[in-house]
Amino acid sequence: MSVLDNFDSWKDFLGDRLHQAKGQGMEQHAVSELAYEIGGYLANTVDAKNEQEAVLRDLWNVADEKEQHAMANIMVKMVQNEGTQS
């Protein structure tokens, strides 16, 4: 099963990667920019595997760049207490 198949698994995966990045000294601005880039990649190239991902993709696609950055920051905030390292 892929981490994309289940939204809770996806959040845990993102949370683990966030903790790993911060543990290696990545600054918040860099984390936010990376989240923005990943959000664009996922919205444009990956099929949604569940309803939550479909909603996020649809919201991303109608948002302007400023709103997409805000969404990326919100996703980072949402997963900061997720994952096996939380």
From TrEMBL:
Q: Which InterPro entries match?
A: DUF3243, Uncharacterised_YmfJ, YmfJ/YflH_sf
Superkingdom per UniProt: Bacteria
Q: What is this protein called?
A: DUF3243 domain-containing protein
Q: Which species is this record about?
A: Halobacillus litoralis
